[in-house]
Amino acid sequence: MKNISNIPQPFLYTRHVHFLNFTRFRIEQPVYINIIRDPINRFLSNYFFRRFGDWRGEQNHLIRTPGMKDDERYLDINVCILENYPECSNPRVFYIIPYFCGQHPQCREPGVWALERAKQNVLENYLLVGILEELEDVLLLLERLLPHYFTGVLNIYKSPDYRKMGNMTGTVRKHTPTLEALQVLYHRMRYEYEFYNFIRDQFHLTKKKIGLKSVSQPPAYSPAFLRELALRTPEPLDEDEELDTDLEDANSWLVHP
Description:
Rossmann fold, two-stranded parallel sheet
């Protein structure tokens, strides 16, 4: 907090950091903004990116995970999910909520307490939390809310140079798990989806208040078979590990008919 507070303004600090309440230590609170994405989509991108990287270079994934053995690197994602490997079970799939929940140890425990605290922090401490599936609208809102930092951001995003760079960051070898594996994964991430839907609703409410006419595609919905499964699937296993990841491409994890 002291390091950030001593940086000459204006500046933008971007990093994976669990929410910090600056005012608790009598330090001026920064303006918090964030973007999240569909939880299963994020999980799939992370799973394959850690193993195979993106289009920027064949060797990038080897540099990123030099200690990963071949049996782990080529582990079938369906086996990982259905056989309860730690990488594909709680709490490692409980990823987005802890960042918004904060520093309390209970923030890393999948449950209602962390979920509600994360929601409260968003309402009280974040200027904007957008969804990656509507990125252009996120950029438009940032330009409206923080013009000193984001004026012209959409033109930059649509520029040929940025498009070329963006196309290189798509995760390679990513594929969709089986229906059975998706069902299990969806239930394990039910708190993540409740939070994601909350953020999406808040984001749409902000767009409506500002008068922004959305040009994005309709948001993804949870297919009926996934919703039904959440009512009859046993509680997931608990683990004691944390996932460290990056967010890459925004390809949909399900292709709707």
